[in-house]
Structure formats: C-alpha cells, structure tokens
Amino acid sequence: MKPRQTRKIHIGSLVIGGDSPIAVQSMAATQTRDIAATRRQIEVLEKAGADVIRIAIDSEADVEALKELRRNTDSVLSVDLQENYKIAPLVAPLVNKIRYNPGHLFHLEKHKTIPEKVRFIVDSARENHCAIRIGVNCGSVDPDYKEKYKDDPIEAMVRCAADHCKLLDEMGFADYCVSLKDSDSAKVVEANKRFSAERPDVPLHLGVTEAGLPPEGIIKTRIAFEQLISAGIGDTIRVSLTLPNEEKGKEIEVGREILKDIDEGRFRSVPENFMEGMNIISCPSCSRVENNKFVELAQDVRKMTRYAGKYKLTIAVMGCRVNGPGETDDADLGLWCGPSRVNLKKGTQTLGSYSYEEIIERLKLEVDRIIAERYGAVGMNCP
Question: Peptide bond preceding 200: is omega within 30 degrees of 0, i.e. cis?
Fold first, then answer.
C-alpha cells in the first residue's frame, strides 16, 4: 500500500488523514424526528463500532430531535444539511462535522451567490469547531458544472469539488474533507484518482453511493476501495448497503473487513463479467426515506429480474425525493419512492406514479420492452 499524503483534520475527538487509521462510518436510516427509532439506529451503529455516525437534518423539527439525541450519545456525529444550508448554525453546536452538497446550494435564496452560502456554512462550522465534508454526488452535481462538462461527468464532479476546496482555502478553513461518489465503481475510482492527483493534501471520504443489496453491493464497494486505498487514496469510508434498519451495523462490519483484507494483502478477484448483466442500483436508505417499504421493494425488484439476469440493463431504486429524481437519470429504468407512490422513469422520462403493490408488475413490462427492443427477445420467455 502506498502511504497517504493528506493532511490531518479533526472531527471532534477523531483524527483522519495522513497516517491516522482509516475511519469507518455509516448513517442513520430513520426519520430524525422519530427520536426513539433514530436513537436505536445510533445504538446499532455504536455497537458495530462506527467511528462517525451521520444524521440527516432538513427542518427545525429535526434540529429539536437532534438536541435530544445528542444528550444521549457521546459518539462523533456528522450532520447532512440536505437542501437547507440555512440550518447550519442550528446544528453546528450539536455535531462534529457538517456535510454539504454543492449541488444543493442553489435551491434556497437564489439571489445569493454560492460563495456567500458557503461562507455561511464555514462561519457556522468555525465558530463551533466543526469539520466540513464537501460531498459531491453523481446524481446531484451543481447544474453549472453539469452543463459545462456535459461530455465528461466525472470531470464535472472533480472540478466542482476542487473549486469548493479553493473557496474554503480562501476563507482560511482547513478542517475539511471531500467525497466524490457514484454508483459505478469505475467512476468512483476515476473521480477520486483525478481529484487526488490535483489535491493530494485533502482527506478523502470514499464510498460507492447506492451500492445496493448484498452481496452485489459489497462487491461493488470492494472493487473501488481495493483500487483506491491500495494506491494511498482514502481516509474515511462508508459502505452504502440497502439493509433493514436493525442490520445497518453490517455496513461497519463490511467496511472493517475490507480494510483488514487490503492491509493484509488479501484482494478478492472479481469475475470479468460481473458488471455485464443486470445491474440493480439501490440507495442505503436514510432519514429522507418516507416509506420503509423501499427496502422490501429493492429486494422484490432483484427477485423479479432474475429471469433477465444475463441482459445488460441498469435499474435504480431510490428511497427519497431528494436524490431520487436526479440519481435515476442515468439508469435504463428508475424508481424513486414517496410515502405511498413509486415514480417510474425510463432514463430521464417519467412514465408514471404507481402504488407499492402495482409497481413490480409495471416495472416488468418495461423490462420486457427494453429486452425486446435491444435483443429481440421477449423478457418473460427468457431463461
């Protein structure tokens, strides 16, 4: 393994970067304002040994819940601002790290510039001794970068991250790290290698977003981590798996297992045809999920599509309205879930909204149509 060259930053009592141990983290999958359920999620992750536990905050009701949760845990907490950067000063006194997505900053107060909004977050973090993560996701890249680099979406992510690092540097704020995530392992590797070559000093949070259900989700994640960490890239990791809430600790267990294998030189071979057939992308769930049937739906999609496993087809199953619409755009078929309805897409085209009971049958029709169009086969008759 090549040595890491990043600077060290502090996230509460935790130090990442440089020769510090690679930290393993996860995220509560419950509605934050459901204090009992979220407290249970924290307990599950603490028991699994999480170094950092992330919680999503989207409203002042969530902030009030966070106050109660903080009183009951000494864990290192990170908070995800979602689309509401204005709540940064409310949450900063309660957590150790703030994560913001550059692609979400344009939603509120459109009369203000992006640097003004970033300074607002930075000032809140600085005053409360919080670290910051600049979190760039494939499905929610800042629209300006997405347009400018429309022929190279990886470069759009890298340039966005690098420019935001420059903003924080100019503001004299150094306790920050960066993440560049995609559901495609190869794109995660390429994006992080490009960024690391340009900014070898900045600690990196690694993850394959919406990796999906085990075991496929574990394999996708392992592919990226083995290639990056062995190259000296990566200071903290998140394994994003679609799991029932009580099993979220498995993300920590899998992360530590992968790190141990890499450290001891045990690299798992990957079949050459692993990504050639059916590819189901599904998010790991978080507090944005409005119906817990989402996890069961992802499992049902995998069961239903087994008959078509040999066909190269990507289906994305997303659990919320925040990332769902954008992060299903690149899939052949996409489902993003609301409280009682599931929205079905074909690429960027919306096909309709269906109940959780109707969606599998409707999805199968679209799968069969694509198979017939591409391969001249009728899906329902495929072996």
Answer: no
Three-state SS string over 222-261 comes to: HHHHHHHHCCCCCCEEECCECCCHHHCHHHHHHHHHHHHH
Q: Residue 206, SS3? A: strand
Same domain, 42 and 81: yes
**Are residues 189 and 61 both part of a single domain?**
yes
Rounded to the nearest 10 degrees, what angle do helices 249-263 and 35-48 cross at?
20
**What integer pLDDT is reported at residue 324 of this predicted model?**
81
Strand order in the sheet with 313-318: 278-282, 313-318, 333-337, 341-346, 349-355
What rounded mean pLDDT belongs to the chain? 92
| Contact yes or no for 262/229 (Cβ under 8 A) | yes
Domain count for the chain, please give it.
Answer: 2
| Nearest-angstrom CA–CA distance, 39 and 30 | 9
pLDDT of residue 272: 62
Residue range(s) defining the domain that contains residue 36: 9-263
pTM > 0.90: yes or no: no
Query: Could you give the C-alpha distances from 216 to 96, 137, 242, in angstroms and in order?
Result: 32, 20, 11
